[in-house]
Amino acid sequence: MKRKLSLFALLGLGSLLPLAAQADDMYLRPYLGVSYVYATAQDLKIGDRDIELPEDVTDFDDDVSTGKGFVGVELLPWLGLEGQYLYLGETEEAGFELSGDIYTAAVVLSLPLASDFFTIFAKGGMAWWDVELDGPGPLDLNRDGENVFYGAGVKFKVLPHLYIRAEYERIPVDKDNFEINFDLASAGLQFTF
């Protein structure tokens, strides 16, 4: 099912690219940026057991250097492609250790408002993740894989090429009887060339 969804996403993107190529003038606007990320891990399930993590483990709080870097290109004012690297940090509490890294590739749909001063955007694509969970007793898991993810956000232009950006993303991790959801709220800067 996930592979079919990925195939449909790629086919949909491929059908939109000719629209970008037919534009009278090339609109391509590459960008890059960094963001501070507040992340929570929820709904941990191993096998058929729901496991509740201590609160300090499920919240990647400000004691952990948590952030992300992203690069992308706007193909049209309303269509773009974006890749990012998310560092989920490493935290330890009550015998549990949780850490991880995530890479993503996404299609970004934007709605520029007020002459590009304010933009609302939504994105979706694939996330490639590596998550490690160590806990009391025999709990020692290291999983990697890929899942579909989604997100939404806003950006505000503060200078001709500089934006302040805020967004929310949900990245589900599901492989080999191991499930956990990462909810990410981030704020950062985007520089557009």
Q: How are the elements arranged and paired?
A:
Elements: H1 2-21, E1 29-46, E2 49-50, H2 55-58, E3 59-60, E4 67-76, E5 79-93, E6 96-113, E7 118-134, E8 140-159, E9 162-175, E10 178-192
Antiparallel strand pairs: 1-2, 1-3, 1-4, 1-10, 4-5, 5-6, 6-7, 7-8, 8-9, 9-10
The SS-based structural class is mainly beta
What proportion strand? over 45%
Mean pLDDT value: 82
Quaternary state reads single chain
Estimated radius of gyration: 18 Å
Largest sheet: 8 strands, antiparallel, barrel
Helix/strand order, N-terminal first: HEEHEEEEEEEE
Beta strand count:
10
Domain tally: 1
Brief descriptors of the model:
single chain; 193 residues; mainly beta; Porin; 8-stranded antiparallel barrel; 2 helices; 10 strands; 68% strand; elongated
